[in-house]
Amino acid sequence: MDARIGKVTEVESRPANNLLRRLSQADYALLAPHVTVEDSAAGQLLYNPGDDVQVVHFPCGPSLATFLVPNEDGRDVETILVGREGAVGGIVSEGFLPAYTRICVKFGGPFARIHVAKLEAAKLRSASMRNIFARYADCMLAQIFQSTACNAIHSIEQRTAKWILAAMERTGDESSVPLTHEQLATLLGVGRSYASRVLQSFKAERILDTRRGSILVRSRDGLRQRACLCNDAVKMHFEEVLRGVYPTEEREAG
Amino acid sequence: MDARIGKVTEVESRPANNLLRRLSQADYALLAPHVTVEDSAAGQLLYNPGDDVQVVHFPCGPSLATFLVPNEDGRDVETILVGREGAVGGIVSEGFLPAYTRICVKFGGPFARIHVAKLEAAKLRSASMRNIFARYADCMLAQIFQSTACNAIHSIEQRTAKWILAAMERTGDESSVPLTHEQLATLLGVGRSYASRVLQSFKAERILDTRRGSILVRSRDGLRQRACLCNDAVKMHFEEVLRGVYPTEEREAG
DNA sequence: TTGAGTCTGTCCACTTGTGCACACAAGGGA
DNA sequence: TCCCTTGTGTGCACAAGTGGACAGACTCAA
Known about the structure:
Chain A is α+β, with helices and mostly antiparallel strands. The first copy, chain A, is built from 9 helices and 10 strands. The A-B interface holds A 67, 69, 71-72, 75, 77, 79-80, 92-94, 97-98, 100-101, 130, 134-135, 137-138, 141-142, 144-149, 151-153, 188-189, 228-229, 237, 240-241 and B 67, 69, 71-72, 75, 77, 79-80, 92-94, 97-98, 100-101, 130, 134-135, 137-138, 141-142, 144-149, 151-153, 188-189, 228-229, 237, 240-241. Chains A, B: Pfam families: HTH_Crp_2. Chains A, B: This is Crp/Fnr family transcriptional regulator.
């Protein structure tokens, strides 16, 4: 993205996760010995409800995780997406508590991982590390609050457009989202046939095209017009809360 | 509730808030010099979006706070209720960040208050204090996650019943909830006429009665049957996460 | 190349919830 | 006491979303 000519900086050698990349060099040095990076495939479960939370997962590059709330019907409802802008697992709980939600890899790819205990130890040693993780936790909270309101009052059409935009922003893939209608419907908590119809109406307006198992985006602006403003509200909070605390200039995916 | 015969214990002299009451005596001693208790009336705004978060408010007794997410229409949508089981303001952000939501006193009453900075200082000095607040933050998070899912898939009837039960549990008032139909509709993010109709259907089944400006509960079990299970799921998480970390036996309001 | 399994587009009857309208009831202040 | 404001109950036309069904299309594996 903003690769500079000349020697690779220390920051650029870190995993492609904004949270990790924007730690100061001293702070990252506290974590580095404990960080591992490994791929996870789409569908893999990082946590199930009740699991002990022991590892923080940082999505890197195009990978994407999602928080699912199990339902009495056995249908999981998706709540928020987390990509390279953040991390999942113990961000708020600080670890060693039973997970409340299921956390699932939505789009596969690399994840940086670190034991919660190591992260907490580093946070105790560094005020700036505490600060940045508290700020991110606050942003994550804002994201969930916004989702709660969004689910209460916005139409399925708006939420569908919002979801596709959010996924694109996080993965960096500007043209397609690998998702069946069934999956889309399930994660929005709506009926499949209605989700299909919404996609059809977008297709009729040349906003997107459908392929078996994926959605091709033709007009990002068209999607923006159809989406509610929830993404933007959250993104503004990210920018406001994290502005200035990161040493580099890389943009946030809200 | 469980007042014991004999001398008043140190815990019972604290503000009637579960989070404060279940700190160890040593931990509470760190906070005590900075705690003030003052009444707030229903409708008072504790925070508006963008406000610097500097004070933690602990609802005591029957008082109740609520997180509202502003909407493009100017209508606020209610997300979660917080009563004597918890606190609002800086629980996750740890203070000095712009508030994302509006926080409003729903039912008036006493609130214990402490500066975030004082609380954070105490947390740095006491691991058990950190632990208990991280645990509560995790519970609050669970509550919001559940609300997000609930708004996605449960009917207005279920959510209405759930809301009334949640309010009753937190205030301790087993028989009535001071709320107009309009207020109920707004906080659920639904139309007023439909909210009225739901209340009428409950009335027809002798689950409740309506008075001008308040709802009288006649059958708590009837409400439970009509409500979704979201309250219970969250309550279980509260019990699991906070079990054992409190010295006293007082029950949680989930 | 042919299935088998999955995904997609569409139909239909039905339920849930909206938004507006209007008559009436309750209750506090002058 | 009466008025005026606010809250309540209900009717209606309509929009949004459900859930089941089914035919056809795509694709992978044998």
